[in-house]
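Cross-check.
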Amino acid sequence: QVQLVESGGGLVQAGASLRLSCAASGRSFGRHTMGWFRQAHGKEREFVAAISWSGSRTQYIESVKGRFTISRDNARNTVFLQMNSLKPEDTAVYFCAASQRPIGQGPYDYWGQGTQVTVSS
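Predicted model, tokenized:
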């Protein structure tokens, strides 16, 4: 069991930055792939970024490369998503997720409740 709680969302103007945090707790955390997903209103949930639990490998969708950075602090059981140069199309509810599988081998097993990110033009 892993419980995930996101924070850091908000309403910002295009070009601004936000840092999302995901705090994990539970007996099973430690060697989990962590990911960020987002779901815009009326749209399907999509993958955004992932990081191996050791932090040695990362993956991003093309639309956020160069703007978003996923990182982790295993001592604090926390994963971050630094989002720079935000665009209106980044508006969505952002979810963190944990997988017991190696990075790139979904599906994810645990999900947070989500945090809203709204980017105005």
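The mean pLDDT is 94. The two ends are 40 Å apart (CA to CA). Passed to J.P. for a second look.
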